[in-house]
């Protein structure tokens, strides 16, 4: 039977492989022939993104048209889509060989239909839904001529001061890898040349999320074990998934800027990981190597190409310096050819040589942009991203026949709910939180809105207008809420406070918003805190003073509806944090998969705690509540000892919904390796299942453990596992777990 299956599979697979090899051969033949007709300048031109001329390094620029005509431009950023379309036509019609352009844009969490920021989406732990959101983002972007997105960002981050924490999937390499891969599948689909798919770009290679002190662009300094075990896996997973391209990071890696780092771009990426797509620099990061102390413009251009960078984004230094470098034998023509070929392969795979306009003519696709279906997916993802942090008075879910007072700077705004990198958003398709609540309360309850506070005292201009000082806003709010049954305080950060170059030294609520909360609290009315922000905030005061806290992040186009769905129980919250929430600024960086010290905190070692703060986070990784309680039974192992590489252990656990609502629960499995050749984290996430449970329902969740889960990079960077005992932790978050012990031996004892 098995044999028959094998031969049947062989019969199906062999022609498929043959067809693929044949089409690969055709592609290489086409590209070789094209390259045979290209001059050195034209080949170098294929390594350039943007116009020519970076004022910082070369003074004045030549116009884009002229640069394209001369064959100096390979790709452009499509911020203005009409300009990008014109540029494509111009390239095809006016450059000597008519090589089409790649048109790229930061489509980070949607294009017109904006999904929650990636950090928020990661809290849904809903991999298929995240893939669907990337699919929709690709369709919408492709409808407007874009064929390349600078996404996914898979930088692991343990520091909420860093504004770009919003763009990634949090602190865990396992979850981050799955999400990065799902986004690539969503963007690229089965076939890159399909006019509804776009090419992904894995960024920022590498380690950008570990910028010192959370300051953007800052130095990264990291030991190899940390790098290989925690920071590199999501990049590797994303490249393995077949992402068409990758982007270097701004930071140094082992002292050398990533953009000119041969170890990173060639030894690791090409030789160890066998990645074949092309690598683009981050914007101007080739030029910025001068400030890193890597030499003059000529030297840094040579450093970058020789390190293995294929495309220069907006420094123009490849175009300006590489011909000279070849002449002076500092760079070989073979190196240029290799990079040029990688870029042309990407263009071929995108189908641009068959039809350069395939991404600009799809009128039918345009009609689906911001469709009800797309917005429904955005709403579902936004609702599943929301994390219920506290509900100890059971104020939630709300009922609709109440008087609800919305108070706070985020209660009646739109753009501020979207999150960073929200280009194509449409105001018309959005509601403010106040509007969404009015809608659900219509004919039953009532909603009012008062601003209550500015975002911060430092800004006296808000949405282009001068605002009243917080003192007056609070005064007015206290009058407005007099008759309210319940207050929803919408506090946090506007979109513009996270993303690139948006580091904060104190990622907490600004003082004026805290002041507003203190005054509202004095009224002794039920208060629900809805926190909207692009990063995990330090919420220690709020956790102490309020019983009900909902972390709603920046939720995109449907942020307001999604929040209303959760507040009224239309959607039972199921999101779980993917970053550890610190209780104090001084704890940062704080993350769950940390090592033990030799003096782990205990009564005996009480001095190993901060003298002025607990060591514990405010909310641990993987944490989030529901309107139900889920009861975790005792885990059951099918066996206690396993042997060798091919064995497996099944661990099962019954989960019961003891609540009265339908709900989803994210069941998490962590492992610990208490005795190993290097010190290992106490816990590492290795599996999870998101399950749905009816009221009263019990479901059995099975996890199949294979020995691969226990592998890690040791101090010699050998990837292997140690035999012996392991801890298996299962629970609703990384803290409240039940522990089982297993033993895994290398060989069966005879
Ligand atoms: C700089 C950012 O670091 C990167 O993430 C982005 O893709 C490029 N600019 C292009 O906008």
Share of helix, binned: 25-40%
Q: Structural class, from helix and strand content?
A: alpha/beta
Radius of gyration: 27 Å
- What is the makeup of the main sheet? 6 strands, mixed
**CATH class placement of the domain at 375-587:** Alpha Beta
CATH topology name of the domain at 375-587, in short, is Rossmann fold
Instruction: Supply the CATH superfamily name of the domain at 375-587.
Output: Glycoside hydrolase family 3 C-terminal domain
Bound chemical compounds? 1-deoxynojirimycin
Percentage beta strand:
15-25%
Number of helices: 22
- What is the architecture of the domain at 375-587 at the second tier of CATH? 3-Layer(aba) Sandwich
Determine the N-to-C terminus distance: 32 Å
Which assembly state applies to the chains in this document?
single chain
Cross-sheet strand order for the largest sheet: 11-18-17-16-12-13
Low-confidence runs of at least 5 consecutive residues:
55-60
Number of strands: 29
Report the average pLDDT across residues: 94
Overall geometric form: globular
């Amino acid at each position: 039977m098995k044999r028959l299956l094998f031969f049947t599979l062989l019969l199906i697979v062999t022609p498929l492989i043959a067809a693929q090899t044949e089409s690969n051969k055709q592609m290489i033949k086409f590209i070789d022939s094209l390259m045979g007709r290209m001059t050195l300048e034209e080949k170098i031109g294929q390594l350039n993104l943007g116009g020519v001329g970076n004022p910082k390094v070369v003074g004045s620029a030549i116009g884009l048209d002229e640069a394209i005509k001369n064959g100096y431009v390979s790709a452009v950023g499509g911020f203005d889509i009409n300009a990008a379309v014109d540029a494509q036509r111009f390239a095809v019609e006016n450059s000597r060989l008519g090589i089409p352009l790649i048109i790229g844009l930061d489509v980070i969490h949607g294009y017109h239909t904006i999904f929650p920021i990636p950090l928020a989406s990661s809290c849904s732990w809903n991999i298929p839904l995240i893939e669907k959101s990337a699919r929709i983002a690709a369709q919408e972007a492709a409808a407007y001529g874009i064929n390349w997105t600078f996404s996914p960002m898979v930088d692991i981050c343990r520091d909420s001061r860093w504004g770009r924490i919003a763009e990634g999937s949090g602190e865990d390499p396992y979850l981050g890898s799955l999400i990065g891969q799902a986004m690539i599948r969503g963007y690229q689909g089965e076939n890159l040349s399909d006019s509804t798919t776009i090419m992904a770009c894995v960024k920022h290679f590498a380690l950008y999320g570990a910028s010192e002190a959370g300051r953007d662009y800052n130095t990264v300094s990291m030991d190899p074990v940390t790098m290989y075990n925690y920071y590199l896996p999501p990049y590797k997973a994303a490249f393995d998934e077949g992402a068409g391209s990758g982007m270097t990071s701004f930071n140094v890696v082992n002292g050398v800027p990533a953009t000119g780092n041969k170890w990173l771009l060639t030894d690791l990426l090409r030789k160890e990981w066998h990645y074949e797509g092309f690598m683009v620099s981050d914007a101007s990061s080739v030029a910025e190597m001068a400030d890193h102390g890597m030499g003059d413009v000529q030297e840094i251009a040579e450093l970058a190409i020789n390190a293995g960078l294929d495309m220069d984004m907006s420094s123009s230094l490849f175009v300006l310096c590489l011909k000279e470098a070849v002449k002076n034998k500092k760079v070989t023509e073979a190196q240029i050819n290799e990079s040029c070929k990688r870029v042309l392969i990407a263009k071929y795979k995108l189908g641009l040589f068959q039809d350069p306009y395939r991404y600009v003519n799809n009128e039918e696709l345009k009609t689906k942009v911001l469709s009800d279906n797309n917005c429904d997916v955005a709403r579902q993802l936004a609702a599943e991203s929301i994390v219920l942090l506290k509900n100890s008075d059971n104020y939630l879910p709300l009922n609709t026949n109440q008087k609800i007072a919305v108070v706070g700077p985020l209660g009646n705004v739109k753009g501020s709910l979207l999150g960073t990198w929200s280009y194509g958003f449409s105001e018309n398709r959005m509601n403010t939180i106040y509007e969404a609540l009015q809608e659900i309360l219509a004919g039953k309850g009532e909603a009012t809105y008062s601003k209550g506070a500015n975002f911060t005292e430092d800004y006296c201009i808000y949405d282009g207008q001068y605002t009243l000082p917080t003192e007056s806003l609070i005064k007015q709010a206290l009058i407005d809420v007099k008759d309210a049954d319940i207050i929803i305080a919408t506090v946090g950060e506007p979109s513009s406070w996270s993303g690139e170059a948006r580091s904060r030294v104190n990622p907490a609520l600004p003082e004026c918003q805290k002041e507003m909360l203190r005054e509202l609290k004095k009224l002794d009315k039920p208060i629900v805190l809805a926190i909207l922000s692009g990063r995990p905030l330090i919420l220690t005061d709020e956790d102490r003073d309020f019983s009900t806290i909902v972390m709603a992040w920046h939720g995109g186009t449907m942020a307001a509806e999604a929040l209303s769905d959760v507040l009224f129980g239309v959607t039972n919250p199921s999101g779980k944090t993917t970053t550890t929430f610190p209780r104090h600024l001084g704890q940062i960086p704080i993350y769950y998969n940390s090592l033990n010290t030799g003096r782990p905190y205990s009564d005996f070692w009480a001095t190993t705690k901060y003298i002025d703060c607990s060591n514990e986070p405010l909310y641990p990784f993987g944490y989030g509540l529901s309107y139900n309680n889920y009861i975790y039974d005792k885990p059951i192992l099918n066996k206690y000892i396993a042997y060798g590489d091919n064995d497996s252990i099944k661990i099962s656990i019954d989960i019961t919904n003891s609540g009265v609502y339908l709900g989803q629960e994210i069941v998490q499995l962590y492992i610990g390796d208490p005795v190993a050749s290097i010190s290992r984290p106490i816990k590492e996430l290795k599996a999870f299942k998101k399950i749905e449970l009816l009221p009263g329902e019990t479901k059995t969740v099975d996890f199949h453990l294979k020995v691969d889960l226990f592998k890690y990079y040791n101090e010699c960077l050998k990837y292997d596992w140690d035999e012996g005992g392991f801890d298996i932790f299962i629970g609703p978050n990384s803290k409240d777990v039940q522990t089982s012990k297993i033993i895994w031996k290398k060989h069966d004892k005879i």
